[in-house]
Amino acid sequence: MKKFVIRRALTGILTIIIVFALNFVIIQMAPGDPITTLMGKENNSPEMRAALEEKYGLDKPLPMQLVSYLQTAMKGDLGTSIIYNRPVSEMIGEKVGATVLLGLTAALLAAVIGTIMGIFAARRQGGAYDAVSSGVSYAFNSMPAFWLGLMLIILFSSILGWFPSYGMTDNRASYTGMAYVADVLKHMFLPVLTLTLVLIPQYFRIAKSSVLQTSNEDFITTLRATGMSEKKIFNKYIFRNAILPTITIFGISMAYLITGVTLIEIVFAWPGMGRLMMTAITQRDYPTLMGIYLIMSISVAVVMLIVDIVYAMLDPRIRYE
Amino acid sequence: MKKISIKKIWKTIVGDKQLLAGVIGLIVLLILALAAPVFATEDPYHFGKDMLVGLGENGHILGTNHMGQDVYSMIIYGIRTSLRVAVISALISGALGVLIGGVGGFFGGKVDTFVSELINVFMMLPSFFLILLIVAMFGNSITNVMIVIGITTWPSNAKLMRAQALSLRERVFVKSARAMGETKRQILFKYIIPNGIFPVIANTTMGMSNAILTEAGLSFLGLGDPGIISWGQMIYTGKQYITSAWWISAFAGVAIVITVLVFYLLGDGLNHVLDPKYSKKRG
Question: Are B121 and A153 in contact (CB < 8 Å)?
C-alpha cells in the first residue's frame, strides 16, 4: 500500500511539473516574445519589461529560465493580470468557491442518480426500462453541455419563468441568512441540472456494465448453486463489487467535469472560474488564462491521486498489480 | 492476414444494431456534406435582408440569424466543418497514439516505462484547457484547432496500442520474424501495428465525437474560426438572441447531438464487432 501511494504521488508530482513545463513551452513558442505576451501588446513600459525580465531570469539561457519559472510558480506566484493589474492567484482564489459549489453538487448528484439508474437497467437487462434509459443516456452523452443549458433556459426561464437564468444571487434584493441560501439554491438549480444531466451517462454506463460483469462471474454462479436467495446475492456480493468502478469514474471524469463547469458558468453567468476565463480570453489576458490552466490541471491531478488511493484502499487487487 | 470479403463485412454490419445505425448515419452525413449545395436552399455565406426571421417565414425553413443568413443552409454546410475536424484530428491523434504506444509496448524496458509514464501523465491533464490555451495564443484558425485537438488526445489511443503491442510481442509469428532477421522497425510496422490496430480504430471513432464537441466548445468561447460556418459558432452567436430567436442555437445543437451520436454508435458498434469476447457472449 505504501509503495502504491508513493508511486502514484510521484506520478502526480511529475504531472504538475509537466504542466508547468508545458506552460513554459507555450509562452516560448507563442508568436511574439514572451515578455510582450505577459505584458500585453499595448503596454510599452520599459520598467515593467525590465522587472519581468528580472523576475523570470530572461537574460539567462533557456534551461535556467525554466528553473526560475518553476521557482516563482512554486511560491504561489502565478503572475499578474495585465488587465486588472492584480495577482492572478488572488483573482482565482475569489472565484474558485463558486465553481467548486457548482461542480461538486452536480458530480455527487450525477454519481448517485446515474449509479442507481445503471443498477436498475442491469437488473432488468433487455427490458423496456433498460432500452429507454440506455437510449436516453446515449443522447445526453452526445450533448454539448452549454447547448443543453441554453435549451433549459428557454424552457424553465423564458417559457415557464420558474427559475432565474442569470447569476448566483438576485442583484436587486440583498438577502441575508436563510433567504440568501434559498436565493442561491434557486439560481443554482438550472446550472446544476444541466451539469448533472450530462454527467449521468458515464455513471449509468459504468454501473450497468459492472453489475452485468460481476453477475457473470464464477463466484456468483457458485453462490447461486448453494441456493442463496437472489436478493442476498445481489445486496451482499454483486452490489459491493460493482460499485467500485464508479469511484474510478469519479476521478477520471474530473477533467471532463471541470470543462463542463466552465462552459456552463458562461451560459448562466455564474461568477466562477469559467467567467473569469471567458473575460481573459476576450481581453487577451494571457497570464490569467495560464494561471487558470495551471490551477485546474493541478486540482485535477490532486483529486485523481486521492481517488486512486481511496480505490486502492477499497480494492486490494489494485495495490498488488 | 485474414481475407475480408465484402459479403462478410455486410453481414457484420447488419448483425450489430449500433454499428448498422452508425453506418447509415455516417452515409447520410457524407451525402449531405458532399452535396451541400444541392440540399441547402441558400448560400449560407449570403447576408440576406431578412434578419431574425422565424421558422418557415419568407422561405427560410429554420429561420435566419441576426445577419440574415439562412439557418437551415448554415446547418447543412456546418456538416462539412464538423466532419473535417472529426476526421483530421482523429487521424493525427490515432497516428501519434499508434506510434507512441506501439514503440513503448514493442520495445519494452526503459522505453516502455517512459512511454507508459508519459501516457499516465497526459491522461491526467484536462486537455480541453490546454487546447484552449494554445488556440487562444496561436490563433484560432480551423487548421490550428484540428492539429491541437489531434496532438492532445493521443494518450488513450497510445494506451490501447501499447497493450496490444505487449501481447503481440510474445506471439510466435513475431518471434519467428525476429529469428528470420527482420529489423525491429520492420517488425513494428509489418506485424505489430497492422495486427494490433483494431481497438485503436474503434477508439478513434469515439475520439471523433469528442473532437466535434471540443470544436463546438471552443467556438462557444469565441475561439472558433470566424472564416467558416460551424455549429458551435451558431450556438455562440445565438446565445445573445436566446429569448427572441431561439432557433439559431437550438437547431445547431440538434445537429451536433445527431452527428456526435452517429460517431458514438459507430465506435460502440466497432468495439462489439472487434471484441471477440462480446460476440461469443451473444452467439
Answer: no
Closest CA to B44 of B250, B212, B230: B230
Would the CB atoms of A30 and B138 count as touching at under 8 Å? yes
- Out of B126, B139, B239, the one facing A259 most closely (by C-beta) is B126
Instruction: Encode pLDDT of B24-44 as tens digits.
Output: 889 998 988 888 787 777 777
Note whether residue A262 is domain-resident: yes
Task: Give me the pLDDT at residue B91, please.
Answer: 93
> Does A28 map to a domain?
no
DSSP 8-state class, residue B17: H
Chain A residue at shortest CA distance from B252: A147
Question: Hey, are the CB atoms on B133 and A141 less than 8 Å from each other?
Answer: no
Give me the pLDDT at residue A57, please: 62
Domain assignment present for A320 = no
Domain that holds residue A151: 92-286
CA pair distance B71, B234, nearest whole angstrom: 9
Residue for grid cell 473575460: A279
Residue with cell 445577419: B67
Nearest to A15 among B124, B127, B134 (CB): B124
Domain count within chain A: 1
pTM, two decimal places? 0.84
Q: Residue B281's pLDDT is what? A: 45
At residue A319, the pLDDT reads 64
Cα A106 to the chain's mean position, in Å? 10
Residue A145: give its domain's CATH number. 1.10.3720.10
- pLDDT (tens digit, 9 = 90+) per residue, A151-161? 888 888 777 87
Cβ of B124 and A259 within 8 Å?
no
Report d(CA A309, CA A305) in Å as an integer: 6
Instruction: Give the ipTM of the model, two decimals please.
Output: 0.83
